[in-house]
Amino acid sequence: MTSLRHILTGLFLSLILASCVTPPPKKPMPSVTMPAEQPAVPGMPAARSPEEFMAQSLTTTGELRYQLQLAAARLYITSDQLDQALEILRGIPPVSASAATRRQIKILSAHIALAMNQPREALSLLVFTEILPAAEQLQVSEIRAQAFQEAGYPLEAVKTRVQMESLLTDQIRQQENHKLIWETLSLLPATTLNQVSEAPLHPQLMGWVELAKIAKRSQIDWQYLQQGLIDWRRRYPDHPAARLFIQELGSRQIELIDRPKNIAVMLPLTGRYAAIGAAIRDGIMAAYYRHPDASYRPEIHFTDTGDNGNIWTQYEAAVDKGAEFIIGPFQKNEVTTLSQSSDVTIPTLTLNYSDQATQASTKLFQFGLLPEDEASQAAEMAIHNGLMHAATLVPTGEWGQRLLLAFQQRFEELGGEIISSETYTSGANDFKHPIQRMLNLDDSEARRNRLQRWVKAELKFTPYRRQDVDMIFIAATPRDARQLKPQFKFHYAGELPVFATSHIFSGEIDRNADRDIDDLFYCDMPWVLSDSPLKQTLQKLWPSQIHYGRFFALGADAYNLMPMLGRLKANTWERFSGHTGNIYLDPQNRLHRELLWARFVKGAPQLLDANNPNAYASSRRDDEADE
């Protein structure tokens, strides 16, 4: 039998195959709504421009002057001249301004922070000790909901929108709020929705969550939808969604569902990728036999693409035999061949990504285990937790550079800064030198040596690492990660949080070996971090495939994704809750996976609730308490 080391090496190399010219697109965010105007102030003259308001403010004093300045700031915000608006707001003295004016300064400043992609700053500004008038409560709630959304906490955004329901008296605005609640809940994977529903929630919020769970289940179990909605209406007869929203939900959930009757699957079942191809094949067949709709049993034909097959000959043969949908191929060069041709005439879901930024056919959809998605999400997780200054350590070579580029682009896009970046040689036993360079310990050592030469005596010395970083991002295999993490502590950086991608975990629990990476944060697919019925099926029927579980999950998701592609294309906010992640489609027909987050505790990954703003901080506090 192939050794575990060789299996893991094959798994790592196959993950390297997935590549993409551009990083995943930024997730769609709701537009920022301008706060409503304040009621007209007696004696306040009319003006058409912010400059006119500012000029008029110079001819008056007191509260009227401040109201003129607020009006100018609003107009600057409306015209996207945020620096000018902020300068005005900072120039209004809070000591002499009224309470109403001070509140408006904070609300407008929060709006500016949100527009400048600083959602955490916006949330920090919207803290009030007094009870706000209803109009201002609505302004604050709207900004808070959008700030939570942009900060990466969709559940908090939903909670805020549910709370503001009572403030909305206009039916159109209520319907728009319901739409935003639904679209935001649709971003959450089934795993998170299940976590949320186990907590004590306000009945109205619980109703929305339970409705979202029904929708997620019906992505595969189509027959469940109608009965699920009937049961939900019985449990929540007075819920706001029961009045109008749910009447449209049933028809919307089943629209754009495609059910191909003849499917061709193109996989390397012989050659160097045969084991991976077999795992994907078994995942497809497991999903086929476990599909909730027993009446849906399409014909499935497998084609072995091997190592040297002509992909176009095989593709055309599948079409000639009546295929209505094609899954595959797997190898990157084959995907690139298809992406460059306009002759892809039937829906095709590849199992890897092309190097090309664009593709010729709208019928081609690209799907796989893209490492860049994970690196980008590591950047997002760090920023969401207020970590803005990163040190990075990746292996030399193409794979390490790809992950570094994806992390850096997303991190800097969100306002972070890469302070130090180093590479290491994978497979080494000692990473002393790259770690010392990354932490600037070399300079500390050099200063000690200069001082010793000057005083001509041996000095007691504790190296001093750089203090301008607050996190570390690593790209590593399980073996390298187990070497790197302890050496960070040895080099005086043990308190810095470390973020990584799924490549640091083999997928199998090994508490003895993985205790060395305790307290490391990493993202992985639901297949690895939860115990699904399909995973139990794999362990029972295909125990030899356990080592290739991630590819088994890829096959299952490929089969279940087929009917959903039309819906994902039509709704940018739609997410398919799969075994490999929370999946969405970008404008270039590339599917991306949003993963779950975990932290290693006592040698095993422990799932985090990434939608809880305090999840990361709470896990750190718990760790400190254990110590």
Summarize the structure.
The chain has 627 residues and is of the alpha/beta class.
Keywords for this entry:
11% strand, 627 residues, globular, 28 helices, seven-stranded mixed sheet, disordered N terminus, five-stranded parallel sheet, 50% helix, 15 strands, single chain, alpha/beta
Structure description:
The protein is α/β, with parallel strands linked by helices. 50% of the residues lie in helices and 11% in strands. It has 28 helices and 15 strands. It has a 7-stranded mixed β-sheet with strand order 7-6-8-9-10-14-15, sandwiched between helices. A 5-stranded parallel β-sheet has the order 2-1-3-4-5, with helices on both faces. β12 (582-585) and β13 (591-594) form a beta hairpin.
Largest sheet: 7 strands, mixed
Structural class label? alpha/beta
Give the uncertain stretches in residue-range form: 1-33, 36-40
Strand order of the largest sheet: 7-6-8-9-10-14-15
First-last Cα distance: 42 Å
Characterize the quaternary organization of these chains. Answer: single chain
In one word, what is the shape?
Answer: globular
Secondary structure tally: strands = 15
The fraction of residues in strands falls at 5-15%
Helix content: 40-55%
Count the helices. How many? Answer: 28
Using only CA atoms, what is the Rg? 28 Å
Mean pLDDT: 85
